Amino acid sequence: MNNIKIVADSTCDLSPELIEKYDISIIPLCIIMGDESYYDKIEITPEEIFEWADKNRTTPKTAAVTFEKATEILKPDLDAGKDIIFFGISTQMSTTCNVIRMIGENTQDSCTGRIHVIDSMNLSTGIGLQVLYAARLAEEGKSAAEIVSLVEARRKDVRASFVVDTLTYLARGGRCSSVTALLANTLKLKPEIVVTDGAMNVAKKYRGSLKSVILKYAKDLEPQLLHADKSCVFITHSGCSDDITDAVREYLKSLNHFEAIYTTRAGGVISSHCGPGTLGVLFYLEEQ
Fold first, then answer.
1. Cβ atoms 12, 122 nearer than 8 A
2. Distances (CA, A) of 251 to 120, 246, 279
3. Does pLDDT of 154 surpass 70?
4. Engineering a disulfide at 234: which of 61, 125, 127, 182 sits with its beta carbon 3.0 to 4.6 angstroms away?
5. How far is CA 42 from CA 31, 45, 276, in A?
6. Where in the chain is the domain with CATH 3.40.50.10170?
7. Phi and psi at residue 119, in whole multiples of 5°?
8. Given this model, what pLDDT does residue 186 score?
9. Whole-angstrom Cα distance, residue 115 to residue 205?
């Protein structure tokens, strides 16, 4: 890789193996539970979040990384003369990108213009897909400016959606009304949430057991999956059983389309808002 460092916030939900393979630095967002604040994926697990949320009948608050913590993480690569390309969760959901922009604006002259911020306009591995694309472009020797241009041009081709087992967590966090959540839970509806233009929107509504719903959701994606970028597809979940994730993996394998199928676990920020039993299939459409 040339003199470029790829950095993402913790909501990119990439596995430790992929983070290590592409030498990606992760900036943790904050999870606030009562009077305590924890760094996502470092100081707290999704299981601990679910336990706390159910005990207190509320969800944790989430917050952008502090200016000081982000500066601490970026400084070694800036001092080494590297150009930094940062990927953050959609600016409609967090101010994280703005924190990194502020660092860029406040760096000394030798670092001016070397922090490039990309608003992923997405979440979870909808960000991760863009991070991996950038890492591969860096390996090809593309400049930072070229990588930013190519990634942003392709951003519209990311397909990010997921099915939630319950709307309780989204309602507690103010992402949907308590009345909507109560109605959906009473009717045993499991909605599909689609990320569009950086925001979450409800698409289809499914009914049935979690496994049957998730398999139906995955199969409904088939027309898009057969026109997806073949390099990889993500199965990202917030605590589904192996029985469910393995069934989705087998279905994706049956398409004989993807070179790699990655299964990753959502971190604390995504889990805080979506709750357990959430699963998404995320991919790029083929480049035109």
1. no
2. 28, 9, 14
3. yes
4. 125
5. 11, 8, 19
6. 4-29+64-155
7. -75, 110
8. 41
9. 41
> Taking residues 118-142, what's their average pLDDT?
97
pLDDT band of 2, cuts 50, 70, 90: confident
Q: How confident is the model at residue 187 (pLDDT cuts 50, 70, 90)?
A: very low
Please state, for a pLDDT cut of 70, what percent of the chain lies above it.
Answer: 90
Mean per-residue pLDDT, 25-44: 95
Tokens of 30: 């904050």
37 φ, ψ to 5°?
A: -120, 135
Q: Whole-angstrom Cα distance, residue 41 to residue 44?
A: 6
Residue with token string 């994706």: 252
Q: What is the Cα 124 distance to its own chain's centre?
A: 1
CA dist 30 and 40 (Å) reads 6
How far is Cα 213 from Cα 217, in angstroms, rounded to an integer?
6
Q: What is the chain's Cα-based Rg?
A: 19
Helix axes 96-105, 67-79, angle to 10 degrees: 50
The dihedral region occupied by 122, where left means phi > 0, alpha psi between -120 and 50, and beta the remainder, is: beta
CATH 3.30.1180.10 intervals, the chain: 160-284
Q: Which fold has domain 160-284?
A: Hypothetical Protein Tm841; Chain: A;domain 3 (3.30.1180)
Q: Apex CA 265: angle with CA 255 and CA 276, to 5°?
A: 105
Distance CA 186, CA 211 (A): 19
